Amino acid sequence: MKEMLNEESVSRSGLAERLPQVVTTDLTLAEETKAASGPRVVRGPHGLPVRIAYAATDFGIVCLTGALVLYLQSGMVPSLAVARPVIRHAYLTCTCLYAAIVVLSCAGQDLYRTPRDRGALEESLMVVKAVSVATVVLVLFIFAIGGLQGISRSTVLALAMLNAGALSGWRYLKRRMILNRTLRGIGVSRVLIVGAGRTGRGLAACLRDSPQLGYQVCGFLEDEPSSDGQILGTVGELRRVILEQFVDELFLTPPIDREVVKQLVLETRELHVALKVIPDLYDGLGWRARVHAIGGYPVMELHVQPIRGIAVAVKRLVDILIATVGLVLTAPFLAVLAVLVRLDSPGPAFYSAQRVGYKGRRFRCWKLRTMSVDADMQKDALRKHNGREGPFFKIRNDPRVTRLGRWLRKFSLDELPQLWNVVCNDMSMVGPRPHPVDDFTRYSVEHLRRLDVKPGITGLWQVTARQDSSFETSLALDLEYIESWSPWLDLEILFRSVPEIVKGKGE
């Protein structure tokens, strides 16, 4: 079906001027439809009470499984069954916190809607991902506060497995109930399609092959009469066909004249029939694109920010937890390294310089000093020896690096103070590396895309092609990370960074 739609989009590219007008109706049409339909009623978000009910169900299930695990554990561990109200209270509080994190993680996976084109297996995998991310956050929280008595690794594992099964299970039952109702004809919409071309017939085939979507195709309308039995009449016979076929929804497929669309809008409003428009797919760029309203105008999203909404909050929460725990654990070691830096060469133990971060914002990035104090002044003179390609400066056997500095760089220990930058929200644990201001001034327009997210202490380039001297390779990996970001990708990069640090591949 996708190939059929793309072929039609290419063959009818001359309609590009008319179709955007169909998708984004102008003010004249808005005034006419307003006059025909009366005063506009502003409603709240569609389905919000249902989503709240789904979230409340998840919260309740997680709390119940937490109580079940505590009950079972109390039977196996007698010390918990005896009068230990403080331990039980801490456990139940932790369970409620876990339930809230699970709800946030499920919201980030868009699990509080029930799209009929989403499969049960796909939804179950999304639930497993959401529960896994929430469990990781819970473990980090417990570790940050020094642990909780009575909460072991087996307890957390049991919680995660029970919740993944329970949350997937009730969603499967809900989906089966909806499908059974649809197959019995309950809640099914009778559909009439305007346009029997490739797009129209492809849409009809898709709706017929996917009964779970809840549509029953009655037939087509065309501009001219036809002997095809599936074509029920012409566009001018819309009223008769709608009444005879008891149509609930009308789909308009390209190409279709703008004036015809205006007339169909008025007629469908009068007949109380829903009207949907299949927009131009722009040679496949609009395939699966989301359409939503901005100020009353329908807008097709061909590209969106890769990290947005609740995902940003989850990423930030994980950053704070990891960075805080990291600073606490490494503080004594960092103090020892600072003393060694002072003893190794004259100058301060810590070095800070301006770096360019998210959306071009400048911030002060902290490191353990690994070079002589006049290193920045020597940079321009040494630029001719640059070992990197593009606007990125680094040379092998840099004469400015101190003896201890080479060892610190080898194991990336000089970057430990950047955990403070993560806490201050200047950086993230994972993301493109921040570049100095003078390197930033040498960026081309394409290079600016790597600033769409906050810079990171580690990133995809560090764990895949750290020895590659090409800036273009680094840029390609940064863009790949931005486009394909997920919490799982962050965790994978963090885990893969550990052996890279131990191997001492830094320069």
Structure description:
- The protein is α/β, with parallel strands linked by helices and 507 residues long.
- The chain folds into 3 domains: 2-43 and 188-301, 3-Layer(aba) Sandwich (Rossmann fold); 48-182, no CATH class; 310-503, no CATH class.
- Helices cover 53% and strands 11% of the residues.
- It is built from 19 helices and 12 strands.
- The strands form 4 sheets. It has a 5-stranded parallel β-sheet, sandwiched between helices. A 3-stranded antiparallel β-sheet has the order 9-8-11.
- A hairpin with a 5-residue loop joins strand 8 (350-356) and strand 9 (362-368).
- The longest helix has 35 residues, at 310-344.
- It is flat and about 90 Å long.
Low-confidence stretches: 1-46, 76-83
**Domains counted in the coordinates: how many?**
3
Instruction: Report the radius of gyration as a whole number of Å.
Output: 30 Å
Query: Between the first and last Cα atoms, what is the distance in angstroms?
Result: 51 Å
Side-by-side strand order of the widest sheet: 3-2-1-4-5
Overall residue-averaged pLDDT value: 77
User: How many strand segments?
Assistant: 12
The biggest sheet, with number of strands, parallel, antiparallel or mixed sense and barrel status, is: 5 strands, parallel
Strand content: 5-15%
Helix content: 40-55%
Q: What is this structure, in a nutshell?
A:
With 507 residues, this protein is α/β, with parallel strands linked by helices.
Please render the helix and strand layout as text.
Blueprint: H1 2-11, H2 19-23, H3 27-37, H4 48-76, H5 78-81, H6 85-108, H7 120-144, H8 153-183, E1 189-194, H9 198-209, E2 215-222, E3 231-234, H10 238-245, E4 249-252, H11 258-271, E5 274-277, E6 290-294, E7 297-301, H12 310-344, E8 350-356, E9 362-368, H13 375-382, H14 403-410, H15 418-423, E10 428-430, E11 435-436, H16 437-440, E12 456-458, H17 460-464, H18 471-483, H19 487-503
Parallel strand pairs: 1-2, 1-4, 2-3, 4-5, 10-12
Antiparallel strand pairs: 6-7, 8-9, 8-11
Helix pairs in contact: 3-11, 4-6, 4-8, 6-7, 7-8, 7-12
